[in-house]
Amino acid sequence: MEVSTPEPHTLEFRDNIPDLAFSPLDHIVLYLRAQNAALFVTRKADDILFEAFELLPLNSSVMSCRGSLLREFPECAALVNLRVVSSEAFLSVFIEVMTKLELDKAPNAQPKAKKAGVEHAEERDTMSPFLVTGMVMDVLAGLGRRVQPSRYIKRSREQVEWSNTRLPFYRSPVWLLLRVSLRLALEHGQVLSNE
Fold it and tell me: Which H or E run contains 99?
């Protein structure tokens, strides 16, 4: 019996780019689960705005905080010309990279812990999103330009449950992704209606 793996949702990005070419109110959200990150993509006049943010904070940030954890969204942003983004050369490489990032965990992105004097990957902690918020956003900024995102502060009541378990329980990163994406979409729509 052959088991087929579902295609990553980043492949849909290629189909949605023409829609962004026509409507500045459309948005694309890429959930890069293996990297603990998301990309929020929006059309701005003749450019495409890419905004990246981390979904789950590090355990140390959550456990050292009393009350709500204050977080800023999005973390970084880059603006790339629509002609560049809709070119086949860009799309083929971008989709390949996004698919890899969506499916594969990077060993260097996993926090490390010392056990018996030897450093090991700490699988109980969340992944660092540096490949998305760093590498991908730097490449996009090189193709276009880095911009200062319109950030907002969110109070998140995060919790890390360690009781009688090997791996901790976290709140759903998808729920945070939906809330942040909705807020960004509403803010971008508000800016457009004021122009």
Answer: helix 88-103
In the chain, the amino acid numbered 80 is: V
* Residue at 152: amino acid letter: Y
Q: Can you list the residues of the chain whose pLDDT is less than 50?
A: 1-6
Q: Distance from first CA to last CA of the chain, Å, rounded?
A: 57
Residue 1 in any domain: the answer is no
Domains of the chain: total: 1
Is 3 within a domain? Answer: no
The residue segments making up the domain with residue 92 are 9-194
Q: Do 47 and 24 meet the contact criterion of CB atoms below 8 Å apart?
A: no
CA gap 86, 64 in Å, rounded: 44
pLDDT at 4: 37
Q: What is the pTM of this model?
A: 0.83
Backbone angles phi, psi at 137, to 5 degrees: -70, -35
Neighbours of 30 (CB within 10 A): 22
